[in-house]
Amino acid sequence: MAHSARRDSPELPDFSVLKRLARDQLIYLLEQLPGKKDLFIEADLMSPLDRIANVSTLKQHEVDKLYKVEYKPVVSTSDQLCFLIRPRIQTVKWVCDVVNADKAAGKFKRYKIIFTPQKFYACETVLEEQGIFGDVSTDEWAFYLLPLDEDIINLELPEFFRDNFLEGDQRWVRTGGSALHLFHSIYGPFSKVYGIGRCSKMVYESWREQVKEGEQKARQAEVGTVFLIDRDVDFVTPLCSQVVYEGLVDDIFRIKCGCVEFGPDVTSSDKSIKVMLNSQDKVFNEIRNEHFSNVFGFLSQKARNLQTAYDKRRGMDIKQMKTFVSEELKGLKQEHRLLSLHIGASESMMKKKTKQDFQELLKTEHSLLEGFEIRECISFIEEHINRQVSYLKLCPLSLYFFTGLLPKDYRSLKAQYLQSYGVDHLLTFANLKQLGLLVEQQPGETLTVMESKMGKLVNDKTAGKLTDAFSSLAKKSNFRALSRRLSLVPKSDEEYDLRVPRDMAYIFSGAYIPLSCKLIEQVLERDGWTGLEEVTRLLNGHEFAVTADLRPQSDAQRIILVMFLGGCTFSEISALRFLGRERGYKFIVLTTAITNSARLIEAMLDNHV
Amino acid sequence: MTPTLMWTFQGMCCVFQMMKSKADEEDYWNSSKFKAFTFDDEDDEFTKLKESRQAVNSICGLVEEEEDEDEVEKVSWSGEPVGSEGISRFLSDSETGSGASASSPCVSCFLLPVSCRYLVVGQGDGVQPARAELPQDRHDAVAVSLEKFRSLQEKLLLLDEAVGVHDGNVITAVLIYLKKSLSKEVLFRELESRQTALRHFIHYLTESKEQRLLLELYRALGRTEDEALLQYKEHLRITDENKRRDFLKSCVSLPFSPEDAGHVQDHYTLLERQIIIEATDRQAETGGKVEIFQKFPRRASILNMPLITTLYYCCFYHYAETEGTYSSPANIRQTFRIAEKQYFVTALAARAKLKAWHDVDALFTSRNWLGFTRKKSPLSFSRVADILSKNNAPVQVLQEYVGLVDDVELRVALAQKYKCHFIVISTYRDLKDRQLLLGYRGKVERGSEEERKIDELLSNPQIRWKN
Asked: Is B5 part of a structural domain of the chain?
């Protein structure tokens, strides 16, 4: 909209080559199994696959029929089966069942598993244990980078978050390193790399390792600066309700791989339609980063302009009409269609949000962020629990847990929660605690005692690592201190004009500047972590800043790749776009997945088999 | 089935599930409609493929790397090592045979990732490609790997090295080998001081569903709460409600924290009750004698529902029962120590749903010692009005509660929202605000009782209007 962009913003590199690369690799792999074959695709690979190839591409390479992996016996009659899957034990076990069933029935077929983005040893162990190692050939499709938009690249690995931060499994570290390596080999070399978080550091090291292994050709860099950040550095931001248009659409309708399905309430017909949401959609592109309160005004202005444009044809002669129809009408119609779609979406969101007392929810969240009126917040949360409001909408609860919690309140809220949503959520609570999202205040001594007890058991080197592990376990909520130090919560007595945002806080109605983005801003400004020592201490360290010995190119330097390990939200992307406009940067977001509060909480659920 | 503009794989697969007959399927694929949806307009796919394969090689060296791996670690079906032709040769070989790599001298060393090869050959820095370090005979190279590490010290060194590389895949690979080659006791003992490796091991056991071993591990580590939770989680697999109940009963004595033990006890008690209630109610429903089940047939069984849902159910179907029965709301409230507010919200919602306004009224009515009645509520009256309106309560019921909202502004706002005109009117009268009242006159129906009331007030000389 009416943002004053700095004119000298550098141009973003072209990411379409990434798609072509992935597609060609896939074709290459499919050709490794010559002849007609049926292809079984893991459900969550379908949307990513849609973005880079289509059915006829596969057909051209002798894929006969396509099936979704559903963990059921297969009905395929083909004598060659190919499985395109994520490296998960459960899926491999299912493939084993398929193969063993065929064997038992005396059918002889050829099988191939294509793991993407890589295979894991544990998966092959399953093949071995099930007695079909050797009957099945395996391959890797190194499909790491899926460009979702001109400035968003997605790894589409939502499990990265849980595996890494909850389970403490580093299986995706190398994947992260490889993804960065691939990006680096096309758009690098990087001259500056900053980062914060344990995982970021490991990914950085894995990438360096891979750079050393391969040779590097001297090339003109397109992207010069990289910032790596762990999701657990900032849990608060993804737990907040989103109020920027794109984030709100994601919270309500769930954007999947850059595509959203609008139901009948949006389309005002009896059909649902799938819509791609990206910068190609001109209307969307103008409102995606806007605070929701501005969107209606903008859309109605747009509608009026459209009307005027249509009205032009009155009083035209035949010739003028002809040019109008051939040149403008198509564009207008397209705009018309998009406009009515987004107006429909906005209306539907308005309705839903007023129903759920959205204003109150936001007020509660803001109070929690400021640390004011905590009693009111508790009773708001309590009331929602009592009324069994969907627990996914109870993110302020976790927000509250995270920002500090008295044991008495914790016990009472937990008890009510279990009563409303089922006792099996005991498992969810255990997970939240393990993740560090739920911080119960404990007497400070307990940990030190444990630490020294454990310390005696092991030698010094491991003791250091152990302390590390403990400090991350005991991750106290330092949010208040961080918030003060980085002034994340603007003074509430000042008016905040959402139409003319003055800082990144606009993405949360002026109530809070996302911690993750603030860190990025500060580090870029200071060209490193100097002066942020207290902040990094509060964040448990693991920060780094590396400058390569390259001649800096000013343009590439101002194109910054931000890699979120564990996912990022659309609101954060909006905030970075804002920061980019203000400072003359261009940000590219490379994330393991797009996340939001609901997805974050869902990843912690264990109350299913 | 008309093709739409966006051909998605998802769509395709749904289509397949829909189409049962094979003939249909073939028809589908052969029909000319779909040829229109060719992939890009490129005329020569193959040239392009070759080009980008080169690009891939030059860009990231990833493919190259993988081919290297094939060379080193894959063994063809005949047991002969695969030559430098790499993948293509490998595949033409296996075409004639039954499949790839059937016989191998050592299975656990298959396809370890690159980073692991360094540690296999004992090279820490990784600058030297591992290949260079491997002996000419690839069988040896293969045999060199994990099986070579036989003493405990070597195994632990291997594990620590793997952890140092920060590659979870490698760590798990080593752990799988250690699991096969060490006794549980030794392995558990060594893992205790290696947190990173331990967490990988736990995750691996969880994923491969090796429940028993995991329980043993927790026990050995003294992580009793984790052990208890893991065991408790098992109840989710049990579908038979009686078996599940018995299982939950056995969970009560698990080493939970005192607080969680209480919750698990509640879980057991709840299911026990639900089984009784379900059996009785199902009978009552099929018997057709009980009016409420006829009027409002049950949509689902109450088994395994949360406590509050159960309370709602009982407030709906069993409200008037005496405290002695299992299904009486009062009994449930007492047994599970349900907070007053929680009980109120649930009972209110259930009775409002049934439009039992008398019950709603009774919920809030309390008598003081003089025998006067007054309305009391543990939750705000604006909330009460909200719940009632969501259950389509009539204005007569609503206005009673809206009128009890203390805050004047909020009261007027709610009254307007729920169309409780008399509340608005009397509030304006109390405020002595003639202008607002006059304005409101335009909003009520002409000739209605509300209009008459307003006129009556406006012409009342005894009111001293402030404007």
From this structure: no
Range A15-143 classified under CATH 3.40.50.720 = no
Fold of A144-234+491-608: Rossmann fold (3.40.50)
CB–CB of B66 and A66 under 8 A? no
Contacts of A471 in chain B (CB under 8 A): none
Is residue A396 predicted with pLDDT exceeding 60? no
Q: What are phi and psi of B409, to 5 degrees?
A: -60, -45
Q: Which of B427, B426, B417 is nearest to B389 (CA)?
A: B417
Mutation for B interface: A16, A423, A465, most B CBs within 10 A:
A423
R_g (Cα) of chain B, nearest Å: 37
Q: Which pTM does this prediction carry?
A: 0.79
Pick from B176, B225, B336: which is nearest to A121 by CB?
Answer: B176
Query: Which of B66, B102, B111 is nearest residue A134 as measured by Cβ atoms?
Result: B102
* CB proximity B331 to A under 8 Å: no
Q: Quick check: A134 and B233 CB within 8 A?
A: no
Least confident piece of the model among A228-232, A488-492, B246-250: A488-492
Banded model confidence at residue B109, pLDDT cuts 50, 70, 90? very low
Contact A121 B338 (CB under 8 A): no
* pLDDT of residue A164 exceeding 60: yes
pLDDT at B139 over 60: no
Q: Which residues of B touch A186 (CB under 8 A)?
A: 59-60
Residues of A in contact with B346 (CB under 8 A): 386
Q: In which element (H, E) is residue A528 found?
A: none
Reply yes or no on whether the pLDDT at B366 is more than 80: no
State the average pLDDT over residues A393-406. Answer: 58
Residue from the list B166, B229, B263 with its beta carbon closest to the beta carbon of A170: B166
Tell if the CB–CB gap between A167 and B199 is shorter than 8 Å.
Answer: yes
Residue A5: pLDDT band (50, 70, 90) is low
Topology of the domain comprising A357-476: 1.25.40
H or E element in which residue A470 lies:
helix A460-473
Q: Parallel, antiparallel, or unpaired for β A559-565 and A543-547?
A: unpaired
Kindly state whether residue B409 falls inside one of the protein's structural domains.
yes
Looking at per-residue confidence, does A217 or B74 come out higher? A217
Q: Which domain holds residue B413?
A: 370-466
The answer to whether the A15-143 and A144-234+491-608 domains have the same CATH topology is yes
Q: Mean pLDDT, to the nearest integer, of B39-59?
A: 38
**Alpha-carbon span A142 to A117, nearest angstrom:** 5
Q: According to CATH, what is the number of the domain A254-354?
A: 3.90.830.10
- Considering only CB atoms, B52 lies closest to which of A24, A125, A169, namely A24
Q: Which of B45, B233, B306 sits opposite A420 (nearest CB)?
A: B306
- The answer to whether residue B195 neighbours chain A at the CB level (below 8 Å) is yes
Q: Domain spans of chain A?
A: 15-143, 144-234+491-608, 254-354, 357-476
State the Cα–Cα distance between residues A255 and B116, nearest whole angstrom: 38
Give me the sign of the Cα torsion angle B375, B377, B380, B385.
negative
Domain count, chain B: 1
pLDDT of residue A338: 85
pLDDT value at A170 more than 90: yes
Identify each DSSP E strand in A141-267 by its residue range. Answer: 146-149, 152-154, 192-196, 225-230, 259-262
Q: pLDDT at position A378, please?
A: 80
CA gap B359, B366 in Å, rounded: 13
Question: Average pLDDT over chain B, rounded to whole?
Answer: 71
Residue B127 has pLDDT above 50, yes or no: no
Q: pLDDT tens-digit profile of A504-526?
A: 999 998 888 999 999 999 999 99
B449 within some domain: yes
CB contact under 8 A, A383 and B345: yes
The C-alpha atoms of residue A557 and residue A411 are separated, in whole angstroms, by 50
- Nearest-Cα distance to chain B for A12, in Å, is 20
Higher pLDDT among residues B137 and A412, named by residue: A412
Q: Is residue B453 part of a domain?
A: yes
How many angstroms separate the CA atoms of A58 and B454, rounded?
A: 75
